[in-house]
């Protein structure tokens, strides 16, 4: 079974894909989520991950991983060598084949998660895509009909915006991230929830509409707009532009990258 590891700034998401016979598409059997700690050592990471895997730990026949946190990336490599060194593993970094052309000014600046999401989105929908990733930052990435990464937009994420507001405004505080009774809040908590839920939905819709105007132009080609990330469920239902929710988009992309690189994956 293939273990996929997506290490973001806030959370680490694990996915376990089934083994299949030729011609079949592997399915996601289990998934887990844990918090990211930049001070985590390779041994601590292995202890938690192997504990979450439980009896599945002995079923792992390959690992595909990425990290957007440089300090954790170093420990990730060490963990894979020490605890899964007997199985092929692929870490997404320069030199790994993704099949995604990066049509931007400086390809080295593009995070591995954005490249992997581009690959998975085009694989799933087979057309031009706009991917909205609700994570520590809100990433809006644009994929051409040929699967090229065209660029996008980055905005502060929901949680860090809420944290900043609570820290800078003496009379305001952090609130539960849920949909309020109405857009017009009747108390401070509801007012904050309204601003968060509907405000971010409006921000995303505004950016996506402008992107679609530039992307489609006079061509009229179809464009799939999809959302992923841990906080996507909070906004998707309130968005007028997001048509698809792909909660495991990055894990699917990691599986695809592994399949492209398994012949070069290291193992003892």
Automatic annotation (TrEMBL):
The gene is coaX. Transmembrane segments: none annotated. The lineage of its organism: Bacteria, Bacillati, Actinomycetota, Actinomycetes, Mycobacteriales. ATP binds at residues 6-13, 136. The keyword tRNA-binding does not apply. This is Type III pantothenate kinase. Substrate binds at residues 111-114, 188. It comes from the Bacteria. K(+) binds at residue 133.
């Amino acid at each position: 079974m293939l273990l996929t590891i997506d290490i973001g700034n806030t959370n680490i998401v694990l996915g376990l894909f089934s083994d299949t016979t030729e011609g079949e598409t592997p399915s996601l059997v289990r998934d887990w989520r844990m918090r990211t700690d930049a001070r985590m050592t390779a041994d601590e990471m292995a202890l938690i991950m192997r504990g979450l895997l439980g009896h599945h730990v002995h079923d792992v026949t390959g690992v595909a991983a990425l990290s957007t946190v440089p300090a954790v990336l170093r420990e990730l490599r060490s963990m894979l060598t020490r605890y899964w060194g007997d199985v092929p593993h692929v870490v997404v970094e320069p030199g790994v084949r993704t099949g995604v052309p990066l049509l931007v000014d400086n390809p080295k600046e593009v995070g591995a998660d954005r490249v992997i999401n581009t690959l998975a989105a085009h694989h799933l929908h087979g057309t031009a895509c706009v991917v909205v990733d609700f994570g520590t930052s809100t990433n809006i990435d644009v994929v051409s009909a040929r699967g090229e990464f065209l660029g996008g937009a980055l905005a502060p994420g929901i949680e860090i915006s809420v944290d900043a507001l609570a820290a800078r405004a003496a009379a305001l505080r952090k609130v539960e991230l849920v949909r309020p009774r109405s857009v017009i809040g009747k108390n401070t908590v509801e007012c904050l929830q309204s601003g968060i839920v509907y405000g971010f939905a409006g921000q995303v819709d505004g950016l996506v509409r402008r992107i679609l105007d530039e992307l489609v132009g006079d061509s009229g080609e179809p464009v799939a707009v999809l959302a992923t990330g841990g906080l996507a469920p909070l906004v998707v239902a309130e968005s007028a532009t997001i048509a698809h929710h792909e909660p495991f988009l990055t894990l699917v992309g990691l599986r695809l990258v592994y399949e492209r690189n398994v012949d070069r994956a290291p193992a003892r």
